[in-house]
Amino acid sequence: MMMYTYFGDAPEVILLAALSLPIMLIFVGPFARMARRRSQASRASGAATTANIEEGMSNVLAVQSLGGNEREGQRFRKASEESFRRFRIESLLKLTYQQFGSLAFLLSQVLFFVVIAGRVIDGTFTAGDYFVLNYYFFVLSATFSGMGFIYPVLQDNVAGLRRVFFLMDLPSEKTGEGIELPRISRGVEMRNVGLTYPDGRRALSDINLDARLGKIVAFVGPTGAGKTSLAYMVPAFVQPTEGTVTIDGVDLKDVSVDSLRDQVSYVFQETQLFSDSILENIRYGNADATEEEVERAARVAGAHDFIAALPDGYRTNLGTVTSKLSVGQKQRIAIARGLLRDARILILDEPTSALDPETEAYLVDALHEAAKDRLVIIIAHRLSTIANADRIYFLEDGQIREQGTHEELMAVPDGRYRRYASLQAGAG
Ligand SMILES: Nc1ncnc2c1ncn2[C@@H]1O[C@H](COP(=O)(O)OP(=O)(O)OP(=O)(O)O)[C@@H](O)[C@H]1O
Ligand SMILES: [Mg+2]
What we know:
By secondary structure, the protein is an alpha/beta fold.
C-alpha cells in the first residue's frame, strides 16, 4: 500500500514482489508431492517401530521364556534402521527444497535489480528511491516467498493427516444399521452353519443348534474344536460363511449390531481389564450400576473378598497393580463385569479354568440362578462346571459330534464325551 502511494507510477515493483510467489511455487512445488510421500513413509515406519517395541514389551515374559531376546533385538534393529533410512531421505529432501527455495528468492531479487536499475538509468527513479524500493521489495517478497514455502510444509502435515484418516476410513461395523432386535425372549437357533476364516481356515461346519432362554448350554471339546468360534457368532463377532444364525427368528445378518450386543454379555477367554479402578472395570458394560450392585456381582463372581482386602478396595487402580493380581483374580473381575451387564444372553468362555473348586461351585450356582430368565452359554473343560448344564454340545474338528445332558452322553457306550469325561476324571 505504502509502495503504491509513493511509487504509484512504478506498479511493476509490487508486481515483481508478487511474482516471487509463483517463482517460489515453481521451484518448490515439485517437491511438495515428494515431501508428502516421504513423510508418509517415514511416519509409517516410525509407527511400525513403536508398535514393534510395544508388542515386545507386552509379551516380555513370553519373549524371555522362549529365548526370543536376540530375535526381538534383531527385529527392532531392522525396524529402526528402516525408520532411520526413511527419515534420512525425508531430511535430505527437505534440505534440497529449502536450497531451491533460497535460489528462487535470489532469482526474484535479481529480477528486481534488473528492472529497477533500468528505471533509475532512464530517470524515472533517483538512486535514493532505489534503496527505499529495494527495502520494501525485500520485505514484500520475503512474505510472498514465505507463502510459497508454506506449501511443502503443509504437504508434510497432510501426510500426518492422511494417516489419521486412514484409521478413520477403516471399514467400520454398521453398528447402527439394520433391524432393531427387540428384547430377546426365545433364544438362539443355528441352521447348517459353517465358518471359514478369511485366511481360509475352516473352523466350523454343519452346525445345527437350539439354545433357549432359561437354559444353561455348554460347549465342550478339545482345544481348537471351534468352541470360541461358535460362541462368537451369537454377538456377531464373526459372521457365518454358510447357513443362518437367528435370534427369536430374526437373522443376525439383518440385525443392528448395537441392539444385539446390548443384550449379549461375553466374558472372554483372555481376560481384558482396563487401567482404571476395579469399580469402573466391573461397571464397564453397565455404567449406571450402583456400587451396591457392583459389590453384589463381585460377590457372586467370588471377587469381593480379595478386592475388599486390597488397601484401596474397589478404588484400586488396575493400571498400577494388574501384575499383582493373579490370573484367577482378574478372571473373577471379568466375570463380575459380565454378570453385572444383566444381558439376556450371558456367554462365558472358560470362566472357571483358574478358579478354585469352592469359588467354582459358588459361581456355577450363581449361573443356574442367572439362567432362570436368561440363556447362559458356557465353554468349559471342567466336568464340575458343565455336568449340570441342560444341554451339552460336544465339538470336535468344527462339528457337533454329540449332544445331550451329562447323563445321556455318559450312557453312550463308546461315546466321545464319555471318553473325554473319563480322561478328565482320571486326571482329576
Ligand atoms: N481369527 C482366526 N483366524 C483364523 N483362524 C482362526 C481364528 N480364530 C480361530 N481360528 C481357528 O479356528 C479353529 C477353532 O478355533 P477356536 O478358537 O474356536 O477353538 P476352541 O475350541 O475355542 O479352542 P480352545 O479350547 O483352545 O479355546 C482353530 O483351528 C483355530 O486355529
Ligand atoms: Mg476357545
